[in-house]
Amino acid sequence: MLNSSRLTGPLQAADETSRLYRILARANQIASTTELDDLLCEMLDLILMVSGGNTGTMYLLDTHTNELVFQVVRGAGDNTKLVGQRICATDGIIGAAVQEKQAIIVDDLATDVRWYGPVDEGKVILENTIAFPLMLRGEPVGAVQVFNFSQKPIQLMQLLGNRMASEYEKTMLLRKSHQHSQRLQALIELIAKISSTLDRDQILNLIIDQARDLLNAEASSLFLLDEKQHELILYLSRDMYQTNLPPLRMPAELGIIGDVVRTGQTACVDDVKLDPRHYAGIDEISGMTTKSLLAVPLRVPTVVLGRERGISQSCIIGGVEAINKREGHFDKTDVQLLSTLAEQAASVLHIADLYSNADELFLNTVTVLVASIDAKDPYTEGHSQRVSDFSVAIAEQLNLSPELRHSIRVGALLHDIGKIGVPDTILSKPGRLTAGEYAEIKKHPAIGANIIQGVRLLQDELPALAQHHERLDGTGYPHGLGADQISLIARIVAVADVFDAITSDRPYRPGMDIATALAILRREAGHHLDERFVEALIAAYQNGKIKPQLRKSPAG
Amino acid sequence: MLNSSRLTGPLQAADETSRLYRILARANQIASTTELDDLLCEMLDLILMVSGGNTGTMYLLDTHTNELVFQVVRGAGDNTKLVGQRICATDGIIGAAVQEKQAIIVDDLATDVRWYGPVDEGKVILENTIAFPLMLRGEPVGAVQVFNFSQKPIQLMQLLGNRMASEYEKTMLLRKSHQHSQRLQALIELIAKISSTLDRDQILNLIIDQARDLLNAEASSLFLLDEKQHELILYLSRDMYQTNLPPLRMPAELGIIGDVVRTGQTACVDDVKLDPRHYAGIDEISGMTTKSLLAVPLRVPTVVLGRERGISQSCIIGGVEAINKREGHFDKTDVQLLSTLAEQAASVLHIADLYSNADELFLNTVTVLVASIDAKDPYTEGHSQRVSDFSVAIAEQLNLSPELRHSIRVGALLHDIGKIGVPDTILSKPGRLTAGEYAEIKKHPAIGANIIQGVRLLQDELPALAQHHERLDGTGYPHGLGADQISLIARIVAVADVFDAITSDRPYRPGMDIATALAILRREAGHHLDERFVEALIAAYQNGKIKPQLRKSPAG
Description:
Chain A is α+β, with helices and mostly antiparallel strands.
């Protein structure tokens, strides 16, 4: 007896210690996962196991609202419906455990006035409970409640609970950090997408759609400032917006966005109803109810243009809004992401404008110069512009590539530029030309090509100048090139040029009517003109794409 | 005796259990930090404490090299010099513990043949040791060795060790994730910087410098493909490169970078000596020894140009290299970051080229058209170009802004464009003009302004056309504007125009010499011409910035 007693004590203790180590080793094993749900469930199961309980719940404390949020429910009373539900952090036995920062053991739930929960869930009758807070750095961050326990190893349970809290925190930090990386990654991809287009509308749509997704918002919208009209032009995300509607406009000073655009300050509003700047008219326009809102300015940074162009100064060109955060509220990261996106978008929009301006400047300047050369002779007024329009109509009819179409537009516009080198007296001579004068006129393709050949970026257009009087059968000028030597652009311009010449008045005859003109073109097709482009011009005419010169009165 | 024995057993056990809980609670507390160094030191201290040892080391297993790396050294034998040192993972007592995946207790170190370490470190004599592996998910990830222990609570020590391993892993994951976020953040800022310039050289320098920093490399370089010459043009990071040297060139097929540019495949090379593609000549050029290398292609994505310009196709324009990773080797994240940077940079370089091309196209086309108009009269050949050059020289002399300088260049180039509307016969009339003919000539400013006024983006230049014959005293034409009504651009162009007229031959007189011309300008300054710009032209002439027309021979 004595011997056995003397042996049993240490042996029991050794057993107990050995069991404890197994439990702690199991806790280590559980903690080695970074899967949050697995971790919490298995840790709660372990706590249930050491207490012999058959039902357990784990809550996290929301310190903003002082509420306990059901996070995990395990065991016989497993009721996943509870997950996500909230109770006041001072309510019930669990609330008391959190408030008192210590474990509470209730051996008979039915007699405890603090218990207000569903004692009988149908599946399981809850008889007793142990509730204890999860402590991290001395403060409660959650709680665990075990029901129908058979043992009360409080210290061990709390140890496991605190471990659970610590692992939860680290796993959440890791998850948030991963999510942050993923959002930055998404932002980078979005920036790459935005910067691979110089098409203004496409940039606007990309920003709007992607801002919504990036910020997990219900919608987003973009406002561009029209300084002259003192208005904001409103673009909504595409799902809310019928693209055939013209963009909506509102006075520039209205709304939270008006303030953001004016001041350059970001606005992050949890409930717009409480913000005096909110302009309810926007909701009427969009048909949605704005609750939360994050609005940032579209601020173009200082852009170094290079060479002689200097620097374009920083300015605010509008704003971007994300509307109604889908979960929670817009936070610091959202502000950072949307601001970065907006700045990059503004920069790309600005560069798209610069590019578009440079392009417009070229085309407009060439257009007015060419028009002024044509205008020296009233009979050729508007000729180059019309030949350009007709040539582009042919290109469109044949669905040629946009690049080629642009080249055709420019080449056709310039095709007669060589007339600069032909004396006015010959160009605008009222009567028939002498052979010598006609020889002078026939120099204009070569003169034109000679003028333009020094322009590196007009090499594709050069044949429109040099070859537009060549003919497929080799009877054209200046070189009498054969069909296989005449470039596509020159063949197209030749058709457009002949059509405009026939339909325009001349000193010696009025312009012909369309039917006659088309008949003449058809007659020339194959030996003088390229049949494919003659047919394309006729088809374009039939589609209403060709507007020949208005017939002048016979007296004019 | 019996009683005491019966009581002592459980009491001792309870004491023991209570101590165990305190130790485990301490472990939880230690684990609640995310400071890695604190965590490892304190955990090792705890292990030392439970064993009564006075010196402890912790190693991490590098599975790539099968080495144990000293991570922490604590206690009396604390020797921080050891940290970072490596031993083979099969060597010594610690190696045996890792290989056998279990604890090894050595009661007398001096007799153990496996012990090869410094038994006597001077400060402390190492008598005995416990070595055990740190296990995570069944595999060793490191090891702990305790010296001069007085107790052997192996289970507890291993429990704490495994906990340490698990916390280490999570903290490292978190740290890596944070670092990843920080690098993405840095990349985003870099992209924003790159896209706020259209200046090619600035973009190139930004890429090179920042790629080096972003990848923690010793240097980086950028190669642009010159397809015509079949060469790569080499740009080195600025610290290695004297900017007054012309860019270096090498045959396009040479080196790892040649392969990357040709194939579009990334190359990540730990030791270039082992890579047959490596071209040692690059090291001779740069003067540094390349060890590791990460090279990615500069691939321009498909860019939507908008409107009629269509799409510019994806192409490889060169490559970017990061050279010699400062710590470890280039990894997947490095590849991802450099690839993203390279793609964005290529895109921005491409857009900068597009913008620069559009600008060049405009200026070159206007230049040749204007030149061809001037060339109709041999006496005005090259006039507009010279007036433009002189005007820009005045602007540069006065350090006017780049934007204004550009405007002056364009306006001056176009100033006589109205001559298109004046009959050739008058423009190139050999003798003196009649009053009527002179009246026709005097229409050219208004005609020019009329031609250009429809061009939205030439409004700043318009006065150069409309007002370049106005005079400060109101005696100019067409409007006889007063000094305060004549714009800056017109005053500058007027000075340049008069200077070129005086120094050029005329049908009725040869061009005057410079001294006479400058004297005439000085005489006109104040009442006809703006003195400030006259003086600027004279200063520019004295600085060698003004090249007047070469004097034609009297016969010419």
